[in-house]
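QA checklist item 7 of 12: single-chain prediction sanity check.
[x] sequence parsed
[x] length recorded as 229
[x] structure emitted
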Amino acid sequence: MPRNPTWLLVRDELIGFARSRVMLVLWIVLPCVALAGFLLLRGRVLHGARADMSAAAFMSFLESSLASTAAALMIAVDLVSERNRNVYPLLVIRPVRREVIVWAKFVAVAGCVAIACVVSISLGVVVDVAYGVTPTAAGLSATGQALVQMTALIALSTAAGAVFGVLTRSIVVAVLLVLYVGQNVAGLVMLPVYLGVLRDQFWLLMALAGALAVVVLWLAGRAFRRVQL
């Protein structure tokens, strides 16, 4: 029985991103650097707050500031690079719709980066246990919410990066759009919290972020159907 071409495309993108040098950095180098930073800053004051926070919290803080940006840059640069190398005229020969190519890249990038975040935060939990910090129900709940929030922001940033990668053929322009526009779009999700609105509606905000990511990804797919490959 022939395999589903859509699944094959998603699998190929997952394997490609998982083996990329960027993902090797996110999966191996970044957790090691974050752990080294935690050990160096443990017990000191950083930006007005105690840096002797738990290792899991430190990993969450570091990953939240880097993961979404990395995901958006990865998908934007990859889309622009492959269009410039005329890869897509060969891909569209497959019996799949054009937008599936964008969706497959979204799943691969967002999934790989989210797994990297889980690995880093899990390493933080292990370090906390090694230091004799017993995980509490409240702490585990906070870590779980941090992972959910991080995943939602990664999804939204990746979708925005896909839009920029589709709309431009310049890597420099795509990177600038991600850094100066895409990250502001992702930050809109947390704007109600900063303004004191919906402060206690975490799951509602995450649902809105997920819905917004779906809409932005749909727009990226529609745009990809219309651009010249």
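[x] summary fact logged: The beta strands are 45-46, 49-50.
[ ] second reviewer sign-off
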